[in-house]
Write a structure and sequence with these properties.
Elements lengths: L8 H4 L8 H11 L26 H14 L3 H4 L2 H24 L7 E5 L2 E5 L12 H4 L6 H12 L19 H12 L3 H7 L5 H11 L2 H16 L15 E10 L8 E2 L1 H4 L3 E10 L2 E9 L8 H6 L9 E3 L9 H7 L3 E2 L6 H8 E5 L5 E5 L5 H6 L1 H13 L4 H10 L8 H14 L1
Parallel strand pairs: 3-7, 7-8
Antiparallel strand pairs: 1-2, 3-5, 4-5, 5-6, 9-10
Helix pairs in contact: 8-9, 8-10, 14-19
Organism: Salmonella enteritidis
Protein name: Tn3 family transposase
GO molecular function: transposase activity
Length: about 425
């Protein structure tokens, strides 16, 4: 009787106080989905098997640790934690002192602190509208068709050559070019080849054959990479950088209603009403989509952020990544840092996040003092750095889908034996960022 919550117990008891076995059986069945977060395992199911099964085998790790760590080619993973972690903790302490000084002088312009009703409220400064949405410069440019834009891009990059025939047949005449452009536009605008056939001089059978022969994930990726790589070589590319010294990328998901039911389509009344759809998570840098992943509308975007970065096949390597709140979990700060990326999410309720992590008090001189509500356990990070390295190496080796492993890491409780040090390291980085 200790397992059921108090509110549920009366429903499981008979009038004489004994347990109704039939109801209790169903109660146990209902607990299974909630316990598949590291408490219950399904060895034959990749998504729900033990986290240990997705990591480098203990014996292999013991015998080849140094080689495996060096094989990641990531300096942070191979560093000595007894030097790295104290230095990071000292940097955080210094930043806390500096921000306390800003708050004392009411000079913290990036995040404003406002006392209200005995509480401290944090908010971002309101941005003034200094720029027009549509600059008059663009009104001077005449509109041209998307097909013409694609033809110009092909002249400079030759991306259509990447759409190879599924049987490896090469045609130098490129007779399929016009049909292929129509197919690309049809699918990009969610019209589909049937819709484009109704409003153009191309027949459905014609477009269907070309699509089946030339349009595949591999050819789309190759063409997209060629265009992106050519764009980076343009002199104007660097002028789109938000910061001069680093390339700042962003990742976000967009919902699309599906015309037909597939393995990934899911219901979402908020976005699709009574229909089904998917979510397309894209990685963008300087207004270019350098990678993308289609996921179910019910899946969390944060599980795929690391996957998008690590499987980016273009020459564009971001230094920093921003997401909205949906891209945040309790391991992404740590994982991205270990692999050389800076994580800079935009929190929808930044005041709430700051209040959960920091505390405002006064010191003995009645000066503002900013401190962590819960100190960083640096000893735990140092003592279990070996586990953090093992998780990082497992991600680098792609033993299993990176998204699957990140889903487990972010879904398990913070005090899971394999995650305690990683989540604490994540909290250290999050505090430094905020």
């Amino acid at each position: 009787q200790r397992l059921p919550p108090k509110a549920t117990r009366p429903l499981l008891l008979k009038p004489d106080g004994s347990i109704d076995k039939a109801r209790y059986e169903w109660f146990l069945y209902l607990q299974i989905p909630n316990r598949l977060n590291g408490q219950l395992m399904l060895p034959e199911v990749i998504r729900y098997r033990a986290l240990e099964d997705d990591l480098v085998k203990p014996q292999t790790w013991k015998n080849q640790k140094q080689v495996l760590v060096e094989g990641t080619q990531q300096p942070k993973i191979s560093k000595d934690p007894t030097r790295l972690i104290p230095r990071m903790a000292d940097e955080l302490t210094l930043r806390l002192h500096e921000v306390s000084e800003y708050l004392e002088r009411s000079d913290n312009r990036d995040v404003i602190l406002r006392p209200k009703g005995g509480k401290h409220l944090w908010r971002l400064p309101t941005a003034s509208k200094k720029h027009l949405v549509n600059n008059p410069f663009f009104q001077q440019m005449r509109a041209i068709s998307v097909a013409d834009v694609l033809r110009v891009v092909d002249q400079d990059t030759g991306f259509i050559d990447d759409f190879e025939h599924v049987l490896g047949m090469n045609s130098k005449s490129r007779q399929y070019e016009v049909d292929l452009l129509a197919i690309l536009i049809a699918n990009a605008t969610n019209q589909g080849i049937y819709g484009i056939a109704q409003i153009s001089d191309r027949t459905y059978d014609q477009l269907s054959t070309i699509q089946a022969n030339y349009l595949r994930l591999e050819t789309l990726n190759a063409a997209n990479d060629r265009i992106n790589n050519a764009t980076t070589r343009l002199s104007i590319f660097k002028h789109y950088n938000i910061q001069d010294d680093s390339l700042h990328a962003s990742a976000d998901g967009q919902k699309f209603e599906a015309k037909r039911e597939t393995f990934r389509t899911r219901y979402s009344s908020k976005y699709f009403g009574t229909s089904k759809g998917v979510s397309a998570v894209s990685l963008n840098a300087n207004h270019m989509a350098i990678n993308a992943r289609v996921i179910g509308a019910n899946e969390h975007e944060s599980h795929y952020i690391f996957d998008l970065l690590m499987n980016n096949s273009t020459e564009i390597i971001p230094d920093m990544l921003s997401t909205d709140t949906h891209g945040v979990n309790h391991v992404n700060f740590a994982l991205l840092d270990l692999f050389g990326y800076r994580f800079a999410p935009r929190y929808a309720r930044v005041g709430k996040v700051i209040n959960e992590l920091f505390n405002i008090t006064e010191d003995e001189n009645q000066r503002v003092k900013l401190s962590l509500r819960k100190p960083i356990n640096t000893k735990r990070i140092i003592d279990h750095w070996d586990t953090i390295q093992r998780i990082a190496v497992s991600l680098a080796q792609r033993k299993t889908s990176q998204a699957t492993l990140v889903r487990k890491l972010s879904g398990y409780k913070h005090n899971h034996p394999l995650l305690e040090a990683l989540t604490e390291y994540n909290r250290l980085l999050k505090a430094q960022y905020l």
